[in-house]
């Protein structure tokens, strides 16, 4: 059985390289980059901005070749410890065929962290190379004057040493709408609704253990049937303990969620899966077909724990989940605890 490789951070000096492998930042929102940079520098870290960050045309920070070139450059640079995109987007899949995966496997590993369309890169990167990646905040979300207790764990997670257990808890409240944030950029999340993790079978207590893998449902679905779908080999090579799949949708209704999960199931993504963590969907039902109907249709016959409304993804705050890490998840009375270990 192969071992997951976990990047190591230099405690004395950390530099974040901000590059945009998907969407860049419009000039009107440059304040997010400026404020995030100031916040990170106050913690004693350095920031390097790539040329792609503040360019944007037709939903992309630049041509795929330019985005790949900068990503390769940041992976190679000795002075960059963490790669953190400004935010997600829609077209990251374009760069996957142009990435030199042999090169990626040979350079010293470094953390890549983000979510949304960035999870497309994280998922493929880990399943192809066996190098851990982190599903967590994008750089723009570090622009808040004060990081909430859930979000701010991203750095301590990345600093964790091998074989040391780290614990994260479900948030107290989550943000139900982005309206306030859009009107008040760089002022942080508007956490206005009590968080309640739930079990699909209605149980108040659940446990699961396995190796984490997952991301944004919308963007991971498009990988199925492509050369970048390496889930089966990843599970065989790295996941003797079984997996915990975490997934979160954005802008999908219940029927679209069902179709995506059905496709993943048919492609055996959930084979040897010990549990599912499903993020807050913020969705619409399709007539009387609901999220719970979608989840039951896919997972009822697999007979594994399925937790939903979990702190993952587009309805912040979110946990920092490390692709490849061993995780134990416990639910008790709508509160969740996630323990991860790098081994």
Structure description:
- The protein is α/β, with parallel strands linked by helices and 343 residues long.
- The protein has ten helices and 16 strands.
- It has helices at residues 30-42, 64-76, 101-106, 118-129, 153-158, 179-183, 217-221, 231-238, 254-266, 291-299, and strands at residues 15-18, 46-49, 82-83, 111-114, 133-135, 165-169, 173-174, 193-194, 198-199, 205-216, 243-248, 273-279, 306-310, 321-323, 326-332, 335-341.
- The strands form three sheets. The chain has an eight-stranded mixed beta sheet with strand order 6-16-15-10-11-12-13-9. A six-stranded mixed beta sheet has the order 2-1-3-4-5-14, with helices on both faces. Strands 7-8 form a two-stranded antiparallel ribbon.
- Helix 9 (254-266) packs parallel to helix 10 (291-299).
- The model has no long low-confidence stretch (mean pLDDT 96).
Key features?
single chain; 343 residues; Rossmann fold; Glucose Oxidase, domain 1; eight-stranded mixed sheet; 16 strands; 26% helix; 22% strand
Q: Concise description?
A:
The chain has helices at residues 30-42, 64-76, 101-106, 118-129, 153-158, 179-183, 217-221, 231-238, 254-266, 291-299; strands at 15-18, 46-49, 82-83, 111-114, 133-135, 165-169, 173-174, 193-194, 198-199, 205-216, 243-248, 273-279, 306-310, 321-323, 326-332, 335-341. The protein has 343 residues and is an alpha/beta fold.
